[in-house]
Amino acid sequence: MMHKIFTAALSATALAGAAAAPAFAQDPAQAGAEAGAAETFTLTDAQVAAFVEAANGINALVQDIQPRMQAAEDQEAQAQIQQEAQAEMETIVQDAGLTVVEYNSIANAARTDQSVAARIQAEAQAQAGN
């Protein structure tokens, strides 16, 4: 389950990074500011739940997009699919109650902080009914 969540987070970042107008990509100043804020990063239970909800939605989207990307006739068609996927990912994240910046911050924290990763894993299991 945790692997799927990290895959969703990485897929969102990868798709967004490849799109023409990457909303999930961060500029260096923003990334630096978030790195400095990592020490004071406070994550609520509601944010964890929203992150898991968004990650599950993104994972489903990525599974849907992959065959379309492979079947795309050229790079232009792939770019169009990526742009559509990026917009859908933004909507998924926002519908879950997070901003894209918050989603990325939580994903980054989960990669570097075992306690955050454990909270996400526990919430993912709870949402899955396990």
**What sequence of helices (H) and strands (E) makes up the elements?**
HHHHHH
Query: How many helices in DSSP terms?
Result: 6
Q: How widely separated are the two ends?
A: 11 Å
Q: Are there runs of 5+ residues with pLDDT below 50, and where? A: 14-39
The largest sheet, given as strand count, sense and whether it forms a barrel, is: none
Give the structural class.
mainly alpha
Quick one: how many beta strands?
0
Mean of residue pLDDT?
A: 79
Account of the protein in words:
Residues 45-120 form the DUF4168 domain. This is DUF4168 domain-containing protein. InterPro entries: DUF4168. Residues 1-25 form the signal peptide. Keywords: Signal. This protein is mostly helical. The protein has a domain at 44-130. 79% of the residues lie in helices and 0% in strands. It contains six helices and no strands. The chain has helices spanning 2-18, 28-37, 45-71, 75-95, 100-112, 114-128. It is elongated, with a radius of gyration of 15 Å.
